[in-house]
Design a protein that fits this description.
Elements: E1 5-9, H1 13-22, E2 28-32, E3 44-47, E4 52-55, E5 60-62, H2 66-74, E6 81-82, E7 89-93, E8 99-102, H3 132-135, H4 152-166, H5 175-184, E9 195-198, H6 202-216, E10 220-222, E11 229-233, E12 236-241, E13 246-248, E14 254-257, H7 261-267, E15 277-285, E16 296-300, E17 306-310, E18 313-318, H8 329-344, E19 353-363, H9 367-370, E20 383-385, H10 398-414
Helix pairs in contact: 1-6, 1-10, 2-10
This protein binds flavin-adenine dinucleotide (FAD).
């Protein structure tokens, strides 16, 4: 009898993380991906309009993202993430032209809020206490019912922080998801809060080394292999229908479905998943940033929210960006560049640009959508779910996606 097989469907981060955990073990791993390439919502490609490699979206991680970092360590790519040795975030306020740096101290005792040069300017230490109510365990509720969603500290710190983490206007965001992010990062101190960016692109960090790792350990990877249907009988998945080919599942075989929520819902009868999505808009400008410009800058009171300075370009992220989906790309490029020029003091007309609107970037991290997220196990004995939209306790992030894959792999190992 051959080894049992684990079929992983979907080669985004969730599927890759599950496959990497299981590869080289007692089961054969087969990865099926509908697209021509792996990475899903987290990948790099060559953009002819810019003449540069770009990421589909700038991705920011924090040093407290343990599962993401464990994944990178496993595939030998931890050095691909770059960031300051200590938590340090540059900020710029477009309304007042004020610049500052937010510098939480390393340890969990937050003495940085007592230091005028580390906290947000024009705020008082007691303003920060508002966050505590969010951290008291309780029923999930919109953030605005637990903490003030206005005022200087909110506009200059909590809104940018939670908008980036939840990809949802924070007032409407889920308190449980926001609290989970704070507990795993800021509440642990600056050591867990260092901003990290894949300096050579997302694929060089997360995708290419993972594929190489899997191939080296004998995993089979099929691209352009879209799962069209799953056959079920007696509480198990019994066959995978890829259109041209139908693969029967043996009694000991397992399926990890790591596809986006709508695809999972169409494949698994009775499955409930989050429905509402939230957009992210990214802009890239082919212009070399000044050498002393910070690699990352938070921008308040503008359209742009985070400005990334890569060695060969400036890139901008705007989260919760559904309001911009109908704005013409040319108008957006002009509007965004005008703000970038103000922040960077570069007096140049619009350089070559690219705008990427990811309409379904993540599920909307609201209370209602959070309640619709299914767990890893299903009613089918050999079918497990993975994806940033499953019930990880985190918003739709790299950390959540990787953790979901790790959980699915752990359940398979435990069932041995
Ligand atoms: C623009 C943008 C910016 C972001 N910024 C950040 C950030 O700053 N920090 C952060 O932590 N996170 C960020 N995220 C979120 C992060 O990218 C996602 O949480 C993560 O990539 C999701 O991975 P996944 O594996 O769950 O899903 P996906 O990446 O969607 O992977 C699912 C895979 O399944 C495949 N598939 C679909 N249907 C089938 C089928 N029937 N058969 C076979 N394969 C199929 C798809 O092609 C895809 O490759 C951002 C996302 C976007 C879009």
């Amino acid at each position: 009898m051959g080894k049992p097989v684990v079929h992983v469907v979907g080669a985004g981060l969730a599927g890759l993380a599950a496959a990497v955990r299981l590869a080289g073990g007692p089961r054969n791993i087969v990865l099926h991906e509908a697209a021509r390439q792996a990475g899903g919502r987290c990948r790099s490609y060559y953009d002819p309009a810019l003449g540069l490699m770009i990421d589909n979206g700038n991705h920011l991680l924090l040093s407290g993202n343990c599962d993401a970092r464990a994944f990178l360590a496993a595939i030998g790519a931890e050095d691909q993430l770059a960031g300051p040795a200590q938590a340090d975030f540059a900020f710029f306020d477009l309304a007042t032209r004020k610049r500052w740096r937010l510098r939480p101290n390393d340890g969990p005792l937050p003495w940085w809020i007592f230091s005028g040069s580390r906290r947000v300017p024009d705020t008082r230490p007691r303003d920060y206490l508002h966050l505590l109510r969010l951290l008291v365990p309780g029923k999930d509720a919109p953030i605005s019912t637990l903490m003030r969603c206005d005022g200087l500290l909110y506009e200059r710190l909590w809104r940018p922080f939670f908008l980036a983490a939840l990809n949802t206007e924070p007032g409407e965001g889920s308190s449980q998801l926001a609290a989970a992010v704070v507990r795993e990062t800021l509440a642990k101190g600056g050591r867990a809060c260092r901003p990290l960016v894949a300096r050579h692109g997302l694929s060089a960090a997360f995708i290419d080394p993972a594929l190489a790792y899997l191939v080296q350990r004998g995993a089979k990877i099929h691209f352009e292999h879209r799962l069209r249907a799953i056959a079920f009988a007696e509480g198990r998945a019994t066959a995978l229908d890829f259109g041209a080919e139908v693969l029967p599942l043996g009694a000991a075989d397992t399926l990890i479905l790591a596809v986006p929520p709508a695809a999972a819902e169409s494949l698994v009868p009775g499955l409930q998943t989050p429905k509402t999505t939230s957009a992210i808009v990214n802009a890239h400008f082919n212009i070399v940033p000044p050498p002393d410009f910070p690699p990352l800058m938070g921008i308040v009171n503008g359209t742009i929210e985070w400005l990334f300075a890569f060695p060969d370009k400036f890139s901008v992220t705007i989260s919760g960006a559904d309001r911009l989906l109908d704005v013409a790309r040319e108008d957006l490029a002009e509007r965004i560049w005008a703000e970038v020029a103000k922040v960077t003091q570069i007096e140049k007309s619009l350089p070559p640009w690219q705008i990427i609107k990811e309409k379904r970037a993540t599920f909307a991290a609201t209370v209602a959508e959070n309640a619709r997220r299914p767990g890893t196990g299903t009613v089918y004995a050999n079918l497990l779910l993975a994806g940033d939209w499953t019930a990880t306790g985190l918003p739709g992030t790299i950390e959540g996606a990787v953790r979901s894959g790790h959980r699915a792999a752990a359940m398979i190992v435990a069932s041995q």
